[in-house]
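User: quick one
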Amino acid sequence: MTAHASPAVLDVADLTVRFRTPTGLLTAVDQLSFSVSAGETLAIVGESGCGKSVTAMALLRLLRSPPAEIGGRHVLFEGQDLLRLRERALRNIRGNRIAMIFQDPLSALNPVLTVGDQIIETLKRHTGLRGAAAHRRAVELLDLVRIPEPARRASDYPHRFSGGMRQRAMIAIALAASPAVLIADEPTTALDVTVQAQILKLLNSLQRELGMALILISHDLGVVAETADRVLVMYAGRKVEERSVLDLFAGPLHPYTRALMRARPRPEELREFLDEIPGIVPSLADLPPGCAFAPRCSVAYEACSATRPALLPSGDGGAVACIRAPLAAGGVVA
Amino acid sequence: MSVSGVALPDARVLRYLGVRVLQVIPTILAIVVLNFFFLRLAPGDLAEVIAGEAGSASPEYMAILRQQFGLDQSIWVQFTKYLTELAQLNLGYSFRNSLPVLDLIVSRAPNTALLMLSSLLIAVVLGVLFGAISAQWRGKWPDGVISALSTVGFATPLFWVGLMLIVLFSVELRWLPAGGMQDLEHSYTGFAHMLDVARHMVLPVFSLAFFYIAIYTRLTRSAMLEVQELDFVRTARAKGLNPLPVTLRHVLRNALLPIVTMTGLQLGALLSGSVVIETVFAWPGMGRLAFDAVFQRDINLLLGVLFFSSFLVIVSNLVTDLVYALLDPRIDIR
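Assistant: Done. Structure below.
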């Protein structure tokens, strides 16, 4: 499926997440499949509410259940199925083999513990390091994420750190046990643009140094273009397109992907208004029977609303779920 | 690991304390003025009470008493005299007890402190424990049982709890003494004396603590449920920490902040609660002293007790602020 020869380190098959609500069962993630290999960056892209963050949380089963119900064929990681693993065994993987960083670094750190202590907590949990050795390692990790004066900063509380520094500290916590997979859920969304670029650069270089697989959740195609190897586009809880980053930006196949690209600001082409996608994201409570994007799609016709389009191979190692795709693709590539 | 943020620099603490003490002076002055004039509103005076007890309330005798007590002078003269003496830390003389007010307070205050602090300790420890259990098993049976009991505790008057405990444990079961602070038939010394006092303490301490256990249970429960939803708790779970460290280090540690505030604010209420309990259990403390002073119109004594109590409450609020700053590194002492 991918151009990468290396075997998948994490393989997700038919992941489904439902939420039990007073008004009924909502399907936030619908039979989502993807895999990611060591050293590879997979970006999961979509608008707010498309299920990308829920996917990230569901991989480590961090969603509270109830209301969340996580199901699927499997989430294979290092020979174990995370969907069926017992909670206790899963805790040995969380923060250790698979780590996570979150959108808002301002609230993701405990305000009453020093940054050093919060790194040491992970070290104590997953590595044999204790006492002075753990402290030394924590300082090394802060140095690794390019925090100046790491020895002094380790004893600071989070409120003394800027937003970018806090996200660096979060990365240091995530890297503490040398994970095989790092899930970054909108890691730069809450940060200033200049800081965003620094954090992305840092993530990229750390990934290369450590050979991790990186799952980058983002709504920002600019971020994705700079960072990802492969892109998975989600809409209303489903995968609508998955391509290598070069193929996707050269010729997006799904009308939704193309609409997303047109809605993106581009410096080479100054416009007064950005194109917007007409309509709103459909409520998960009443999705249309066919393609979920059909009501907002400019090239939809009757058949689109009749049956849900299957994922079809795009010929370049990618896949797209649109019955109008070949036609649409011709238009763009030409 | 590091405690550098916790150790407060002495000079700054002292300056902070200095400023706070200056702010307290107008408060104390207002309390003194209000106490003095409000207490004069009650009908009757010490001369009437004493003459009434002597059974010879002739106008001449009462005039002599009033002259002796200084009650014949105008209220303004009395007030000026009271203020001048207070400025020299002289709380006046209790004609009823034929002792200086300060001596009476000093002899009774430790008994009240023993009662209050034991109750407070038990209330905080048990309340936080029950609240934590309740929050952890939210919606399950332990939560139901604890919530029901805390509602009962919240709604039951202090004196009734005291009386019922006496009926059960002193009258019916004969396990514990019904009142007083020590056995009047024996005069124990050393360890036996401590044991004797402890036996007398059980019922009043638990009666007083009953209501506050309920308060701290409810407070801890709601604070923990609130903190549980915060992002850094999700971070802690994503680290792979076990549930107990997540609850203690991350949730409870942050939930304690409002509990500390509440404890400081409630010391005043606890003092008034101890007036009731001391009366029910014939506990020789300041509450009893104040209670008797009211009925005997021993204004000097009552003013002294009230002044001393308000002083205690102000000091405890100051201590609360300092403890809060110790617990929450985001609060800088200025």
